[in-house]
Amino acid sequence: MDTDRTSSDPSTLTEIVVRGRFGPALISALGAYVADIVVDGSLTRLIADVPDQSALLGLLDVLAALNIYIVSVNPIAHEPAS
Q1: For 45-61, what is the mean pLDDT?
Q2: Most buried in the list 1, 6, 36, 67, measured by CB within 10 Å?
């Protein structure tokens, strides 16, 4: 079974909104998945590129184990190139 993603695969970007701000060490630790981080007041939006549901659950488990309060998890719709 070939598990490589190709350019025709749908977007795997997911927005994870958490309470609080992340320091450089935590950002670095999540670097394998996190494509962007946006701080909005007391919330932090992680834009994560996760290849599948198992990876998403693993990332959420890491955040929960660190006692990071998860506000929401939202898929980011794939927008086809013009």
Answers
A1: 90
A2: 36
